[in-house]
């Protein structure tokens, strides 16, 4: 009998994983177990100097699952894809099987996320310069979005986008400079969800990462006609895409 699977959700910068709650509720109705990660870099008392704190907290959630013999589908949004990839090292299903250990990460689901290679960072992927909508503090420790509605929620109602903006928290800017040392998508079966109306990570950038950075690797793709926040604007479509991954695994 195959091990049970838990779906672990990792948000992007500025966001709480509570943004996935409607998706999680949908998946729960069909019997899927879920877990969600609160990133150390979002709204911290002291800003992080790199993504290590995020890697650690994501890895702790994965370890708790695999130590219980569970398989893991890791769903990562935006910035969350970078520390998520790093956190998987040594915890993928095949490696754990070779070590006679149960459970492991069986799939990585990128939701309009950053898919980068070793030696690269989010900052280098975006051309090595701040984006126009980055509002960075003078000490270069904190970053906030200056135009969150237009950048993240451009396909949502005014009321819904206002509620979403109210939930955002400051992000540790230096995490954007942390370089990836492990590209999990080279080892773990992966799916990339293209978001066609994304103004934060434009579809051209999403496709470049999948078609160029990950060229030669079998990255499955799906697409939704949605902004950078499909968990708000098309939660049922996102849940369906994740459900297909779990069924196939």
Q: Give a short account of the largest sheet.
A: 6 strands, parallel
Number of self-contained structural domains: 1
Structure annotation, total helices: 10
What is the strand content?
15-25%
CATH class bucket: Alpha Beta
Secondary-structure element pattern, one letter each: EHEHEHHEHEEHHEEHEHH
Helix content: 25-40%
The low-confidence parts are: none
Structural class: alpha/beta
CATH architecture: 3-Layer(aba) Sandwich
Form type = globular
Strands of the widest sheet, in order across it, are: 2-1-3-4-8-9
The H-level CATH homologous superfamily, spelled out, is: Alpha/Beta hydrolase fold, catalytic domain
Mean pLDDT value = 96
Got a strand count? 9
What fold name stands as the CATH topology? Rossmann fold
What is the end-to-end distance?
13 Å
Pfam family, one: Abhydrolase_6
Domain AB hydrolase-1: 7-241
Protein name: AB hydrolase-1 domain-containing protein
Organism: Talaromyces rugulosus (Penicillium rugulosum)
Explained architecture:
It is a single chain. This protein has 249 residues and is of the alpha/beta class. It has a single domain, classed as Rossmann fold (3-Layer(aba) Sandwich). It contains ten helices and nine strands. The protein has helices at 21-29, 52-67, 81-87, 93-98, 122-125, 148-152, 158-166, 203-213, 230-233, 235-248, and strands at 5-10, 33-36, 71-77, 104-111, 134-136, 142-145, 171-172, 190-195, 220-224. The protein has a six-stranded parallel beta sheet, with helices on both faces. Strand 8, helix 8 and strand 9 (220-224) form a beta-alpha-beta unit. Helix 1 (21-29) packs across helix 10 and helix 2 crosses helix 3 (81-87). The longest helix is centred in the N-terminal third of the chain and has 16 residues, at 52-67. The radius of gyration is 17 Å and the shape is globular. The mean pLDDT is 96. Residues 7-241 form the AB hydrolase-1 domain. It comes from Talaromyces rugulosus. This is AB hydrolase-1 domain-containing protein.
